[in-house]
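Write out the 3D structure for:
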Amino acid sequence: MNKIIAAFDGLKYSESTGDYAIDIAKITDSKITGVFLDDRTYTSFKIYDLVLDHGVSEQKLRLLKEKDNQSRMISANKFENMCRKSGVNCNIHHDKNVALQDLLHETIFADLLIINHTESFTHYDEEYPTRFIRDLLSNTQAPVFLVPEIYRKIEKLILLYDGTNTSIYAIKMFNYLFPQYKSLPVELICIKNMDSSLHIPDYQLLKDFLKRHFENIKYTVLKGLPEIEIVNHLKDEDSNVIAILGAYRRTMLSRWFKSSMADALIKELKLPLFIAHNK
């Protein structure tokens, strides 16, 4: 049994985060901790909502704060009731300090974090991935299951491999957390420079490793820029896939799975991502 944390903005409850978390918990016989990031500095209202003709209204501030508190409790109760109806063991954390710092601390004591890729904890519209998600992925202490806005059952695995330790590390972590998915179709994608051969780095070692963990593997080698070729390749997928990335770090050594690669997948494709990196 793994410890899964599902992170929520209680003011903008993510249905898909709840759906994916419950589905994964049932498949892996895991316990979920619903982490509701009730950051005191983050509200549903803006400061100008409080300004009346005679100045800032303390009474309106109290009413709006109470409305936010009620929204957060309704969201937490909704998730808890969904878990109970699904027969999933769960508990709820209400973290009331800075959202990013609280969530990063929670990841130290978790096997997996599930969160929607749209989370921002801000009033402002942002391009995806948001600053919150970027900072989270760069500093998390647990693998992250980044989910789209609509739940879809996982039917195929995409392994993104660039020949580095970090890409193998992600594959290992996914396998350790989800051995139940070993029978699903798997496609390993490797991108090479236009002037390179089609040889997959460490192919024999890689093949020997993967065949012990997955039952049905296809190897695909493409040429070009990874953030273009991978996106184009996955756009043609007709299955409900999850892509497994090897890294998301500001100081990474890999020339492939830099933030632009993950960013491209988040921006262009509405599919779940499993992102893991070893520090």
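The two ends are 24 Å apart (CA to CA).
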